[in-house]
Structure formats: C-alpha cells, structure tokens
Amino acid sequence: MKLGTRKASTVVHPSVSAPQSSASDDPPETLSPRVVGRILAVVVAASTCFVLPLAPMLAAPGQVTALRINTVAALDLAILGWFVPWDRHRRAMTWLAVIVLGHTAMSIYVAERVEVFVPFLLFIFVFVGLALPRWTSVALLPLAVATYAAPVLLRGLGTSEALRAALYVPTAVVAGEAISWLAHRLRGTEAGLVRLDRLKNEFIAMVAHDVRTPMTVISGFTETLRDENLSSDERRTFLDTILRNTKRCTEFVENLLQFARIEVGEFHQSSRPFDLADVAHRLRAELEAVHGLDKVTVRTDADLPLALGDETRHWQVLANLLSNAVKFSAPDEPILVDITGADGAIQVAVRDRGPGISEDEVPKLFQKFASMRSSGPNRAVGTGLGLYICRKIVEAGGGLMWVDTRPGRGSTFFYTVPTASGATTTHPAGHNGGTKAKRSLRRN
Amino acid sequence: MHVGTLIVDDEEDIRTLVRLVIDAANKGLFVAGEATSGEEALDEIDKLDPSVVVLDERMPGLTGVETAAKMLERRPGQLIVMCSAYLDAELRERAEAAGVKVCLAKTEFRRIPEVLREVAAASA
Fold it and tell me: Which of A14, A42, A303, A342 shows the greatest Cβ crowding within 10 Å of its Cβ?
C-alpha cells in the first residue's frame, strides 16, 4: 500500500481491473518514426539510383533483370516511406531495404567486383548500425542472413535462373521470417526466465523475512525467559510475544498452503448457511481480547439474512481485511465494519482512515504476490498473498470483492456473500466504540 | 566508551528483542531511540544523534539500503549496521556500496553488542 496524491477515488473490482502494464523489451527509440521513415526512404532511393544504371556492371549475367525489378519495387516503397511514418510500415520497409541491398551485394559479389563489394558491405553495416533504431539492427541480422542465404539455397536446388529470380524475394522473406520468429521466441523465453528468476529470489527473500523474523523473536524471547530475575509480568509479556509469533508462523504456512491449493485447483470450501454478523462480532471480540484492540466497530442490518458459504473461510477473509485495516491506519483512527443485506446478497464493507492506496498500486492489490510487485517509496512488506486468497475465497462462493480508496482519506474494502434464501436472523444494530489500538496486526 | 544506538525495524518484537540484548550487554551500550521505518529514522536521527544505527532491510516504505544511503548523504560519518532476515551476497554488496559498515543476519542478534563495540572502536 502506498500514499498517493490523486484526488478522485478509485474503485476497482479485480475482475474488471485494468491489466498491469508490462515493461517493453524493446530498447527506447531515439528518432521519431517520421524521421526514421525518411532516412530509410533516402537510403533506399539513393541505393536504387545507384543500382539501376549500374545493374549490367554490378549483376552477374542473367540477374540484371531481376535486380532491376527488385530495385524499382524498392524505389516505390522508398517514395511511400517519405510520406508514411516508419512505425506504420517498418516491417515492409525493412524487408525492402534488406532485399535491395542484399541483392545488390550478391550481384556485385557474383560479378566478382570485390573493389565495389567491400565498400558496399561497409555501407550496409553503417546503414544498419547508425541510421536505424537499435531494435531494428537486431531484427535485421537474421533477415540479412536469410537474404544472403536465399540465392545459395535456390542455386543448390538446381532451379533455372529465371525461377531463381522469381523465387528470390519470397524465399528470403520466408527464411528471414522463420529466423526472426525463432530469435523472437528465444528472446521471449530468455526474458521470461529472467523475470521468473527475479520473482523466485524475491519469493525466497519474502519467505526468509516472514519465517525468520518470528523465529528469531521466538528464539530470542525463549532464551530471555531463562533469566531467573524476570518478574511475572515480564514473563507473561514474553510468553505472549512467543505465542503471537508462533501463530504468525502458522498463519504464514497456512497461507502458502492455501495458495498452493488454489494454484493447482484443489481449493475447496463448504457451502452452508451461517451468520456473517456473528462472525464479525466474534472477530471484533477476539481482536479486543487477544490483541487489546478496541477501535473496531461492527454495524449490521437488523434483519440480516443468513449467508451461504464456508464460515471458516469467511472468518479468514474478514480477519485479513481487519488486520490490514489495523496495520495501515493510525492507532487512534477507528475501523468500521458495515454488514448490509441487498438484492439476494450480503455486502460487507471494512472502512479505515489510513493513507489510502495510490492509483498505480490498486490494480495489483488482488493479484498474487501483490506486495512483491509493489514498488516505490511507500511499498508494503509481506507475501502479497492475503488479498489474493481472500478474493479467491469470495469468488469461489459466488461473491465479488473490490476496493474504494482515496489517497490520504482511507480505503474501504467491499465483498459480497450470497444469502441462504429465506433465512434471516436478528442482530442489534451497532456495537462497541473504539479507543486506541495497543498493537498492530500484520498485513498478509 | 558510550555507544548510543538507534534501532530501525518495522517489527515491534524485533525492536524489543534488540533493545533487550543491548540493555543486557550494558557497559557503555544504550538505546538512543527506535524508529518503525526508514522515513521515521531520517526524521529522528539528528535529534537522537546515535553513534550507530541498527537497520532492517525489508520495511514498508524506504528499504534499509535506501535509508542508509539517505542517512549517509546527510551524515557522512554515520555508522550503520544492517540486521536483516534475508542476507544474501547481493544484499551485502548493495549495503556495502551504500556505506553500511557491517551486515548481520537477524538470527545472529546475540552478536549485536559485540558488533556495535567493534564498529564504534574502529571509527574512534
């Protein structure tokens, strides 16, 4: 969770939230598309002006016509390239540039004009290296290889000179596209592995933090208990600390196991009528008794219907939302739980007056490892599994979960639970007031 | 030698534990103050003027390394000890590059008094 400066509120439901932006693998381009298009057009046009009159000198016998046809086609596209920005047709322009330059180079080479061939190759490298953005240089490499390989391949197949000329362009295109596709796949796989490796390291760091920290506390306070000079109050405090951290370890492992079950599709829950308001009141009482928290207020409709779902799981959902609300709000700020019935469902709203959540963090909130992906100066610490598991529990029971947040003014987490039709129960509306929290709960 | 320490950790229980260890060691070591985040530590450090800062890495907001870098920007001679639950070579490298004197795993919390004395003596 992090502070933000946005004024308007953000309401996001995970199922309709905007997709996360993914970092592009392409290095940034330094020239505008129109400028690049025009550079390319000039280069191709200059090449064709050079190639057309000199074709008989440059090309091997029998290749002159093919060379001229390709060159004229390239000239057409060069003219088009002057008017159309590079990003609109860069693939077509790249191909034409490669083909005309490659064919010219081949023709010169076949004609054994080494004194022309070497400067021409240099010209191609300069063109590829300097005139185009970096990604294009990378893309051009397999295409250039294919362009040079195509006539060799066709010659090896024993085709006639005319057929070779006719097949030259499509062969080069198909071979180049295949190589380009393979290169792209390899780059994609490599980038995926790098991302996976980074996520794995983050996960290990997170597990180490979330297990070692309570284990260190347990070990440290247990050792301290050996001191015979401790008062009985100190002993009780230390034992409470040990117990709290033991529970934290257990909850952490339970979260990981639930996550694993969700991932393999083996997360099951029962569906029975239960009293959601009673769950909320019992949770509030436990927070007060165990953690000394008396700032949570539960308000329910007088004739709230019974909910339909897994009571234990819904205890977990509400406990997680309350834990987050406590952790992310000041000790003297109240937390409000509103439970209302409407349209065949029960709606639960957990309101806090914490810092709120910035717009860019909201779409990640209900995703797995949310806090691992979180960044910036106000990122949260934790597994980032808690809200993901909550959402899965709520959705598996036929409900929805979403958040309404205003940076600087707090957040309200909502979820719905289907009602057990016809069943209602009566609760007193409103419960305890709140004073100061004595201890923060951990956000899962 | 008197060595005042600022403990920076978002975990209250860890702060309490480090305080207990330092108080038990005594002999010139004392806790100058506590902070629950890097931001709070940066706000308080000039007022508390500790000899050594014991800093966690994984905290909400600024990380330990980021906090160390900002602290040293403002107080170039500040002695900082990082005490993290997960301490790999990469974190050690980043911490040392930021100017952290010593890195300790949280499981080595019993060594904190000894490290505080060593670091303070080396800089004296």
Answer: A14
